[in-house]
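ok, trying the design again with the full structure, not the truncated one.
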């Protein structure tokens, strides 16, 4: 039996400001009080260092990470830079980056490898579009993303998978418990087939319109090991109840 501690990670996307870092302290206090849950916030790059100093012990991370160590990559940020700023996590392959920056599975995998090599908790995002789901192709589409976006092996860091159906992100539409169970079970089977026993230890997060009022139901689904939260991670008032639901699950 593998006990996987829940992870609730907030993705601020291109939101937030120095002033908004005042949300971190109450989030950190609530996380400590709830207990038994890992909690992280991934603000924009410019806020990572100031967030670390005001984190109250929360894990702070980045929303992307370049695949190369350093060099002529204007506008990019490396894993080493994230670490130097105090970041301990990187999200890679978010669907917004796959769409807006045309990131392929191979590119996402290279980023994940680099982030892991630097010891970062590395969340690799996968998820199908509304068209894929309507066509009944969601399982093969996500299966392919899992196969091609994840590294074959890693020595450092922690690999985490986030299943985020694109149609559920920022829309208020949540996948049903049955849909989530179907996908997380399929991802778990892929992970075990590929990594053996390690595949049982990897955390699989659900993401897409996770809120205070649906979190408990989502966390009760088998093989849901936490959540990647966008909109509802921006304020302590909305994020704390999700942390508490994870703690009770
Ligand atoms: P959302 O975003 O919670 O605002 O739907 C989730 C995500 O994109 O990670």
């Amino acid at each position: 039996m593998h006990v996987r501690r829940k992870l609730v990670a907030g993705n601020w996307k291109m939101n937030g400001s120095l002033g908004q870092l005042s949300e971190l302290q109450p989030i950190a206090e609530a996380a400590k009080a709830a207990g038994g849950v890992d909690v992280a916030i991934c603000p924009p790059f410019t806020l990572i260092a100031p967030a670390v100093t005001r984190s109250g012990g929360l894990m702070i991370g980045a929303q992307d990470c370049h695949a190369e160590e350093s060099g002529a990559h204007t506008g990019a940020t490396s894993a080493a830079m994230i670490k130097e700023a105090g970041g301990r996590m990187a999200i890679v392959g978010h669907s917004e980056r796959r769409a807006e920056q045309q990131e392929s599975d191979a590119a996402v995998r290279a980023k994940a490898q680099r982030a892991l090599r630097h010891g970062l908790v590395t969340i690799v995002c996968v998820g199908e579009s509304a068209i894929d789901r309507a066509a009944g192709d969601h399982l093969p589409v996500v299966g392919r993303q899992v196969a091609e976006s994840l590294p074959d092996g890693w020595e450092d860091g922690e690999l985490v998978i986030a299943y985020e159906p694109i149609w559920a992100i920022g829309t208020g539409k949540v996948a049903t418990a049955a849909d989530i169970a179907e996908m997380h079970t399929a991802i778990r089977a892929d992970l075990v087939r590929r990594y053996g026993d390690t595949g049982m230890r990897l955390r699989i997060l659900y993401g897409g319109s996770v809120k205070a009022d649906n979190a408990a139901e989502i966390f009760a689904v088998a093989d849901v090991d936490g959540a990647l939260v966008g909109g509802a991670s921006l304020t302590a008032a909305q994020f704390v109840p999700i942390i508490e639901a994870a703690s009770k699950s």
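Keeping the full-length input from now on. The mean pLDDT is 96.
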